[in-house]
Every structure is written in structure tokens, then in C-alpha cells.
TrEMBL record:
Keywords: Gluconate utilization, Oxidoreductase. Belongs to the 6-phosphogluconate dehydrogenase family. NCBIfam families: gnd_rel (TIGR00872), PRK09599.1 (NF007161). This is 6-phosphogluconate dehydrogenase, NAD(+)-dependent, decarboxylating. Residues 160-293 form the 6-phosphogluconate dehydrogenase C-terminal domain. It comes from Actinacidiphila cocklensis. GO terms for molecular function: NADP binding; phosphogluconate dehydrogenase (decarboxylating) activity. The keyword Mitochondrion does not apply. One of its GO terms (biological process) is pentose-phosphate shunt.
């Protein structure tokens, strides 16, 4: 299958490579010409055979809207656009309607896997009409992890991004719990090796997880997290999850508290946020602020 892929950053570039390893043809476009296979969106579309499928992997909001607007002018009836970024689910219905008016299909895809997805595969939560999803299914199969899990047609347009948003809200709460436990262990005199306590939890315990593995990896690099500031950003999905909970009268005390904890980290130095910042760096390549004021990345 042929695929156009717009946005070749930390995730997009690895996705292109994984799809190619599965035997598909990928024509990538990025504003950085050193990464691109095409010099423009127009050239990308020209290199694809109809019916075309173009996957958009750029930041949510105005950048995604700009790309979809341009693709609407370049593509033809029977083509399909996939939004694989972290767009808000409320934008998906508008994008789908705008494209459908020109006979172009739309699929929203929540993608999880971060910088590890190239080797491990990406968890995919997709929304849209079955006929549009069927067109893209070979690409979903190439991206997903091996085995029966890691892919779901979650429902109609918007369901993919809504599911990914809730996933990220849960992620917020899980990271917060690990961070709070780590800070408490560090505070008491009787526990002399917090890092090894965390390591011991990786096998045989009910709280073992990939996040716990990443926490141990972060502590191996900086045992007491002395090199990183207790400051953690939020990328939007946590806020949207809490807003959706309010709209639907669903209590989310743990997720809401974890979001507010990140807000608190921007006011005062927070030991817990050192762990949150390092976990975000470990799984997603998100920047951390070091104690010397210099940013750092996992990639």
C-alpha cells in the first residue's frame, strides 16, 4: 500500500520506518527538507496513486487545521485523510464534515507508543466509518504491536481521539501515584535504597508496569533525580479529560488531582514532578528542565 505521511518528528519519523519495514511505500513530508521525501504537500499528493491515503502527524490545533485545509484542495473524491496527532475529539467531526463535502474520507487515530513505537509497535485507537477505516487497515496492521491487541476501531468519528485522551488522563494518574510513592520513600530514614525498592516491584507485584520499568531506568541514570527540576508540563489531553468528565458528570478525582499537581509544579519546586518529568522524557522524549537551566531530551 502507498501512504503519504505529513510530519516526520519523533513519532512520525519512526512510524514511517516501521511502515516501510512492513513492505509498504511511504512518501513523507516535513518542513525540514532533510527529512522529507517530497518538497511540498502538493508534490506528496502527486507521488501517490489514487485512491490516496494521507496520514497527518503534526501538532494539534492550528498546524493540523492548516494541513487538512490544504489537503482538502489537493485530494480528490475517494481519497482518505487520517489525523494521527493529539487533536481534540471535538475537532474531528468538523474535519470529517469538511472533507466529506468533497468526497474525501476521514479517520481519527489516537496513537500511543512514543519514542519506543518503532520497535515495540504503536497502540492505535481509531474512529470513523468502517469503509474509510478499511482503506487504512493495512497501515494500522503495520503499526500495531505483534499479537491480538493494540488496535481497536473505537467507534464513530472522534472516538479514536477521545479514547486516546482518556488513556492519557489515566497515564497522568498512574505517573502521579509512582511519583508520590517515590517521594515518600525518599523522605524516610529507614529506607536506604529507594531505587532498588522500585526495581523489586518490577516482578510479581500488582503495580508492575512499563511506567515502573521506565521509572527504574530514570533512577539508574540519576538515582535521586538531583539533575532535573521538579517541573512538568501538561500537553492538553489531561485538561480535556477533566473537562469531558465535568460535561458528563463523571467523577475523576485521581486524574483531576494529577493534573492539578502539574499546575502546582510550576509554582514551587516539587520532588514528585522530578519523577513525572523523567517519566515523560523516558516514554515520549518530552523535554525536561535540568537544574542547570539547560533542557534535555531522550532522543
Amino acid at each position: 500500500m502507498q501512504l503519504g505521511l505529513v510530519g516526520l518528528g519523533k513519532m512520525g519519523g519512526n512510524m514511517r520506518e516501521r511502515i516501510r519495514r512492513a513492505g509498504h511505500t511511504v512518501v513523507g513530508y516535513d518542513r525540514n527538507p532533510e527529512l522529507s521525501d517530497a518538497g511540498s504537500l502538493s508534490e506528496l499528493v502527486d507521488k501517490l496513486q489514487a485512491p490516496r491515503t494521507v496520514w497527518v502527524m503534526v501538532p494539534a490545533g492550528a498546524p493540523t487545521q492548516s494541513v487538512i485545509d490544504e489537503l482538502a484542495e489537493l485530494l480528490a473524491p475517494g481519497d482518505t485523510v487520517v489525523d494521527g496527532g493529539n487533536s481534540r475529539w471535538t475537532e474531528d467531526e468538523r474535519h470529517a464534515a469538511e472533507l466529506l463535502a468533497q468526497g474525501i474520507g476521514f479517520v481519527d487515530a489516537g496513537v500511543s507508543g512514543g519514542v519506543w513505537g518503532l520497535e515495540n509497535g504503536y497502540a492505535l485507537m481509531v474512529g470513523g466509518d468502517a469503509e474509510h477505516i478499511a482503506r487504512v487497515r493495512p497501515i494500522f496492521d503495520a503499526l500495531k504491536p505483534e499479537g491480538p491487541y493494540g488496535y481497536v476501531h473505537a467507534g464513530k468519528v472522534g472516538a479514536g481521539h477521545f479514547s486516546k485522551m482518556v488513556h492519557n488522563g489515566i497515564e497522568y494518574a498512574m505517573m502521579q501515584a509512582y511519583a508520590e510513592g517515590w517521594e515518600l520513600l525518599e523522605k524516610v530514614d529507614s529506607v536506604t535504597d529507594v531505587r532498588e525498592v522500585f526495581r523489586s516491584w518490577r516482578e510479581g507485584t500488582v503495580i508492575r508496569s512499563w511506567l515502573l520499568d521506565l521509572a527504574v531506568g530514570a533512577l539508574d541514570q540519576d538515582e535521586h533525580l538531583d539533575k532535573v527540576r521538579g517541573f512538568a508540563q501538561d500537553s492538553g489531553e489531561g485538561r480535556w479529560t477533566v473537562e469531558a468528565a465535568i460535561d458528563h458528570a463523571v467523577p475523576l478525582p485521581a486524574i483531576t488531582a494529577s493534573l492539578f499537581a502539574r499546575f502546582a509544579s510550576r509554582q514551587n519546586e516539587s520532588p514528585q514532578m522530578k519523577m513525572i518529568a523523567q517519566l515523560r522524557n523516558q516514554f515520549g522524549g518530552h523535554a525536561v528542565e535540568n537544574t542547570d537551566g539547560v533542557g534535555d531530551h531522550a532522543d
